[in-house]
Prior knowledge:
Blueprint: E1 2-4, H1 37-40, E2 49-57, E3 64-72, E4 79-82, E5 94-97, E6 110-112, E7 123-125
GO molecular function, one term: protein-glutamine gamma-glutamyltransferase activity
Keywords: Acyltransferase, Transferase
Enzyme class: transferase
Amino acid sequence: LCAVRYTGVSGAPFRQEQHRRTVPPGEEETVTMTVTFAEYQPHVGDQDALKLTVAGAVQETGQVVAKELRVRLHTPELTLTLLAPAVVGQDTPIQVVFQNPLPDTLSGATLRMEGAGIACPKPFPL
Length: 126
């Protein structure tokens, strides 16, 4: 398991596991892996993905099979709601909602709104 930058460049693997299984004819075997935020967080940036590469070898035939899966990490969205009708020349109240999906408290964040008619956007510390 490794991080993949938005440019497609893979980072160094930060987790590796090896499993040996005996699979009877016509059967299938499932192996699961849970990756915690604390484990992958130091390796990823804002626009990165995780790349899981799985390879297996059939001992009796020497046949090798491999599969790769990229998991894009989604960033949370801002929800904007107009709280009153927008009228030219009057203040317009807007509600902005952001939900922190992380197990850690976020600090030092700033919300900045820009748009037509906003002459001097002011940062709003959160």
